[in-house]
Amino acid sequence: MTRFYFALIAALFFFSSPVSSRAAEFFRWVDDKGVVHFTDNLHNIPEKKRTSATRIRARETPRNEEPSSPSLLDKAAIPFQKKGEVVIVQATVNEKAAARFVVDTGASYTMISQAVAKELEIDLERKLPTITFQTANGVIHAPLVSLDSVEVGGMQVKELTAAVHDVFPDASISGLLGLNFLSNFRMDIDTKNGVLHLEKK
Questions:
Q1: Less Cβ around it within 10 Å: N or C end of the chain?
Q2: Domain that residue 162 falls in
Q3: What residues are paired with 134 via a beta bridge?
Q4: What digits encode the pLDDT tens for the residues 3-34?
């Protein structure tokens, strides 16, 4: 895709981050507008809000214990991180696979890479509906699959259709978030503070 990807987002909720053997520490705080924020750095919290911030320790899930699903919110403020001219958000697909997506309001469908599809054990050999679109290298036909869920910053969309195609040469980027995810939310981008606000419609 040759058009500019509308920039956004990047550090997801701690729930979707891989947990190391040592428990990670995060802080939860609420701003004056009632928006819930999460950060791993106390200095990212305004000084007047630090005393009311809640300290959270993420622990490793024991092998015999099922991971619990995060409680989802009506709105969230998500720090974003630019890479060149695009912005990347970390997300969780099907509540198990970590993914890094570029957000593109010009794309009708969310896209996932072949690697993400493989991690999700999606059988691409079976007959699937396809979508045709133009790329810099010509026309391609990408299979369409149904994802159980995609979550960004605690904001989740279930039963989301996604195309499978390696959009970016950078293997660390897992695909892109399209309008079929983004249209579920009201979006506000605070470029000064590097924060994306998402609120359920």
A1: C
A2: 14-200
A3: 139
A4: 333 322 222 223 333 333 334 456 677 778 77
